[in-house]
Specification:
The protein has 72 residues and is an all-alpha fold. It has one domain. It is 53% helix and 0% strand. It is built from three helices and no strands. It starts with 9 loop residues before the first helix and ends in a 7-residue tail after the last helix.
Length: 72
């Protein structure tokens, strides 16, 4: 049975489970929470900027920022 560690938000816990299975969130919850917060902050910065060409939308711009999608 899985239970969310107190140091983690529900959404971070859900993403951790999707990432590494049922034991992953227990490895270092404080560090994982901070990592997730940093990722969210990076995404928020991107969302506050223009998503014009070559990006179709903010999702594409965020993916490109993290190297998950290439743009020329």
């Amino acid at each position: 049975m899985n239970h969310k560690p107190l140091q983690m938000t529900q959404k971070v816990y859900e993403v951790a489970l999707q990432t590494g299975g049922s034991f992953f969130p227990d490895t270092n919850t404080a560090l994982l929470q901070k990592f997730a917060e940093n990722i969210v902050e990076e995404c928020a910065k991107i969302a506050n900027t223009d998503a014009s060409f070559p990006y179709i939308d903010y999702g594409d711009k965020i993916r490109a920022h993290f190297g998950l999608k290439d743009y020329v």
